[in-house]
Amino acid sequence: MKIEVLSSDKNQVEFKLVGERHTFAQLLKHYLLKHSDVEFASYKLNHPFDNETLFIVRTKKGKPSKVLLEVNKEILQDLADFKKKVKEAFK
């Protein structure tokens, strides 16, 4: 996956996830919308065969890049917890 920042200011960032489609984008959007500082988060693919996902994140306060890093940590923690539960379930 590659990230290309298209525009960035105090409360909004637009970027492309190159090499990604709905799977990761939907996960990221879900976690972003749960974050208390996020006002808006969405993505789109311009064409059904696109391999580039356009993302827009707007925050109520704080830098969008900081929120993205916080959400990344939360996703990684939840995945680690899930991995642990799967291992326990299938001993």
Describe the protein in words.
This protein has 91 residues and is α+β, with helices and mostly antiparallel strands. Helix content is 43%, strand content 32%. The protein has 2 helices and 4 strands. It has a 4-stranded antiparallel sheet. Helix 1 (22-34) crosses helix 2 (64-89). It is globular and about 50 Å long. The relative contact order is 0.18.
Short description:
By secondary structure, the protein is an alpha+beta fold.
Quick check: average pLDDT? 95
Estimate what percentage of residues fall within beta strands.
Answer: 25-35%
Largest sheet: 4 strands, antiparallel
* Total helical elements: 2
Fraction of residues in helices? 40-55%
* Assembly state of the chains shown: single chain
What's the β-strand tally? 4
Structural class: alpha+beta
Low-confidence stretches: none
Rg from alpha-carbon coordinates: 15 Å
Write down the overall geometry.
globular
Task: Name its key features.
91 residues; 4-stranded antiparallel β-sheet; 2 helices; alpha+beta; single chain; 4 strands; 32% strand
What are the SSEs and their pairings?
Elements: E1 2-8, E2 12-18, H1 22-34, E3 38-44, E4 52-59, H2 64-89
Antiparallel strand pairs: 1-2, 2-4, 3-4
